[in-house]
Structures are given as structure tokens and as C-alpha cells.
Amino acid sequence: FTDKPDEVPSVALGMQRNLSVITVRLDVMTVTPWLAPVIWDGTFDSSIIDSLYQPQNLTIGTTVFAIGKYTRFIKGFLETAEKHFLVGYKVNYYIFTDKPDEVPSVALGMQRNLSVITVSKFFRWQEISMRRMERILNTIEERLLKEVDYLYCLDVDMLFHNHWGAEVLSTLVAAVHPGYYKNPREVFPYERRPASQAYVPLDQGDFYYAGAMIGGLIENVRALTRTCHQAILIDKQNDIEAAWQEESHLNKYFLQHKPTKLLSPEYLWDDTKPKPPEIHFIRFSTVLKNYAEVREN
Ligand code: 2GW
Ligand code: MN
To answer: Which domains does the chain have, with CATH numbers?
Structure first.
């Protein structure tokens, strides 16, 4: 067992003597206190993972929203997903947009399909991002229950840079936010007002999870989107909007329904941050964008 597999020398072994190198990570948390794995490079073997999941003949759905100026991100998202996202598996992309004409045509690999779902644009940006829960829920109930086994809901202003494979599959999957994985819970930007459904007291919370990735078995993502959407509606009736919109509600949900697998920040990075040594691969990361320009309506 070593944290430095590259440094294991090759030594001539006698007959009937074998050596296995098992990599361990000592520099990061690789399992939660409720025994869910945290997926870091060096904690899994892709060939073993694929031997588990390939025979199941799975279909993995991916939702992305590209409303208003965000259609410009679709091309890079899809082109890089084709190189790194669940390659070798059946993948259905579902692109929600108000401008179906602006969805570029990107060459897709075998067993990979794309559906465009036309939706209206909301005036407030907070609604664009928050209403994803409602729209994903409706689409799950209309068709995704029949079409996919697992569903991953991702931000579109992102690019894949390295393998993002079947090691992410599990019942309910959350991504640890790249900005807060070294911080104590008191500084997590949870919603702190008791009047909101997303309220988390200062002495609670496990991790701060990113809103840009929700995943899991379709039934589990359905339950998540249903609960979060209902909580958002209750907040609306009470005239309160959580600090980080649906990300706040997601964090409340994961506090009450522990994820069965956590993705380390390798799986959801932020390019404005320098790469620290514990991140061996940046696998999926935000595109640097001119916020003022892209968000102007
Ligand atoms: C427009 C103005 C301001 C903010 C967002 C938008 C906008 C977002 C838009 O005009 N069109 C659009 O399609 N979106 C979708 O919402 C798109 O899929 C985008 O990736 C997603 C989230 O917005 P984004 O990427 O600008 O926000 P981030 O990266 O700062 O978001 C984090 O916080 C959000 C909550 O405020 C969400 O939880 C998001 O998932 C987080 O990554
Ligand atoms: Mn984003």
C-alpha cells in the first residue's frame, strides 16, 4: 500500500511470488463519516469500474440548460463531453434552451444522442437557475423515467478536460464545491435565515456541495428535484429567496439525504483557482466568462 505508486521499484521476484501495488490517498478525505466514497484520482481502477458497469447496458442522461446568451457554451461543453464524459456508455444529452436554432450540430459518438427541449426564458436570472429543478422534474416524469437509468444535471458554462467516467455512478451523487473543501462548516455559504426552507444552522452540515452537478439513479434524482422544487415554491410564497438559490436547497437536501458517493473537486473545478497539489487531474471546470457581458439580458 503506497501513496506513491510510481516510486515502487521493479524487483525481480522468484517463482510463485507476486506483488500488487495498492494506491492509497493520505492527503485527502476519501470516505465520509457515513461511509460514502469520495472519488479522487488514485482511489479507483477504471478497468474494474468498467467491468462492473459495462455489462449492465446502462443509459445515462445529462441535462444542461442554455438560455439566452448561454447557448454559446453548448459547443465546447458537447465537444469536450464527447472526449471525456462516460465514453463507451450510452449517453443521452437533453439540452434545454429558449433558442433551439442556436444549438450547434456537434458530431456525436456511437450510442450517444441529443434531444433539444424548448423552454421559455425567465426574466430574472435567479429564476433561470432555480427553475431548473422544476423543469428537470417535469421532464423526468414525462420521459426520462423511461429513457435513462442514471441522470446527471450539469451547468453548461463548463468544459471537460480529463476522464469523467463510470466511477461517478451511484444512487445519489453530490460534488464537493471547489471553493469550500478545506473550510470548516461555519463558513459554508448555506442559507442561514430560519425563515427559508433551505436553512442550515451553524452547527450542522457535512460539506458544501456545488449546484453545478447533481447525479444519481433517475428515481433518486426525481425525489431530489421534487423536494427542492417544493421547498423553492414555499420560499416564494413566503417572499424569501435562498442565498444561493437552488444550490442552497440542494445543500439542505443533501444534509437530510446523505449522498451515496461524493465527487472530489477534480470533477468540478473552477479555473479561476490555481491547481493545488492534491488535485492530480482537473476533469471538468468552469469556463472563464465575462459575467457582466454574458449575463446582461
Ligand atoms: C444568467 C444571468 C446570471 C446567472 C445565470 C444566468 C443564466 C444561467 C443564463 O442566462 N442562462 C442559462 O442557461 N443559465 C443556466 O444556469 C446555465 O446552465 C448555467 O450554467 C446555469 C447556472 O448559472 P451560472 O453558470 O451562470 O452560475 P454559476 O456558475 O455562478 O453558478 C452556481 O450558482 C448557481 C446559483 O446561483 C447555480 O447553483 C449553479 O448551478 C452553480 O454552479
Ligand atoms: Mn456555472
So the answer is: 5-289 (3.90.550.10)
